[in-house]
Specification:
By secondary structure, this protein is mostly helical. 43% of the residues lie in helices and 2% in strands. Helix 3 runs parallel beside helix 14, helix 4 runs antiparallel to helix 5 and helix 5 packs parallel to helix 7.
Length: 359
């Protein structure tokens, strides 16, 4: 009887979107992260982005006891600043560090390296500040943008950190989102970035992380969202003349539509299981391309409900435990589907729409 009752309880919460449970889940994550997240300490700003943006999408940011001034102060404490004017010529990036430990100065041959700011952490920091309503004129954006140019490579790609790391479309996306949020495109060469993105389109129409790599849902979103943010996709969903000859739009659309599986969910690559997060990565791509009407919305809605848990939040696959990453993108996917009570999604930036600040 106990098992039957438990199964009944679980099934009873899977036939509708349980907003209150999700609010409670993100409120708990705001207060304290479980010990399982200790290994992700270096990504603390990104985890905070999931929490704050998740509460915003759920329409609860103003209701939960979030001290916005304290959040702003905390986020700004991760910002890297040059010690003097000459430091700007050393090739370092003065954005945001991802955590306290990434701010600790490691010793390299007796020389202290003081700056470990990262493009993804900077994207997360600016997203939080934008959601909270921080005035970016107080940020010192010129320093961020001027130093960010140091990260762009001759082929148009970006390193995420000045000491060197992988270079792929994820960091072009971060750079484009940063410029868009700061409303200043002086931090990157958009033409070179677009040309690199074009080289990442695979034979099947999707985009890989780097030229010649396998098409992937996350990489495809980063490529398409970057093109949209940089102004290379027009309102009629056709790429501009400047890029039309090197981006195969029909093949991209076909690849994206083929990612919806028989169970209604979206897979990130061919022959993979459906996964909650790809409802956003692929669904967001289709939204940007103006092709969301071709999605089987009911089937996707039903799949996502199978990943909704009795604890609140979403799991990667049905019947698994929830985690913060998949919970955030599950909420984002429901916003894409127009779930009542959720903040509409600004798909290109991956956050909820923000009301214009009073002048």
């Amino acid at each position: 009887m106990g098992s039957s009752d438990e199964d009944t309880d679980q099934s009873s919460i899977c036939d509708k979107f349980e907003r209150d449970r999700h609010v409670f889940f993100f409120q708990m994550m705001y207060q304290m992260l479980p010990t399982e997240y200790q290994g992700q300490e270096i990504n603390r700003l990104t985890l905070a982005y999931f929490v704050i943006s998740g509460l915003h999408l759920l329409g609860d940011l103003a209701c939960v006891s979030v001290d916005k001034e304290a959040v702003i102060e905390w986020v700004l404490s991760f910002q890297a600043h040059p010690q003097d004017k000459t430091a700007m010529s050393h090739g370092e990036f003065y954005g945001f560090c991802g955590s306290r430990t990434s701010q600790f100065p490691p010793i390299d041959n007796g020389v202290l390296s003081r700056n470990c700011s990262h493009l993804a952490s900077t994207y997360s920091a600016l997203s939080i500040l934008k959601i909270i309503g921080f005035d970016f004129s107080k940020l010192g954006a010129a320093t961020i943008l001027t130093s960010m140019k140091n990260l762009q490579q001759p082929d148009g790609s970006f390193m995420p950190i000045h000491i060197g790391a992988e270079m792929d479309v994820r960091f072009i996306y971060c750079a484009a989102a940063i410029c868009s949020m700061l409303n200043d495109w002086s931090g990157m060469d958009r033409q070179r970035a677009m040309e690199y993105i074009a080289k990442c389109q695979s034979y099947d129409g999707g985009f890989g992380l780097v030229p010649g790599s396998e098409s992937h849902g996350g990489a495809t979103y980063c490529a398409v969202a970057s093109l949209q943010l940089m102004g290379f996709i027009e309102d009629d969903f056709l790429l501009t003349t400047q890029s039309a000859s090197i981006i195969n739009f029909p093949l991209l659309l076909e690849w994206s539509l083929q990612r919806q599986s028989d169970d209604g969910g979206y897979q990130g690559r061919s022959n993979k299981d459906s996964d909650t997060c790809y409802a956003f990565w692929i669904g967001g791509t289709l939204k940007i391309l103006g092709a969301q009407e071709f999605m089987d919305r009911k089937a996707l809605h039903d799949f996502l409900l199978t990943c909704q848990t009795q604890y609140g939040g979403f799991s990667k696959f049905p019947s698994n435990l929830p985690d913060l990453y998949h919970s955030y993108y599950g909420i984002s996917a429901f916003s894409l589907l127009g779930e009542p009570g959720l903040t509409p999604l600004c798909v290109e930036l991956g956050i909820g729409d923000i009301a214009p600040q009073p002048q």
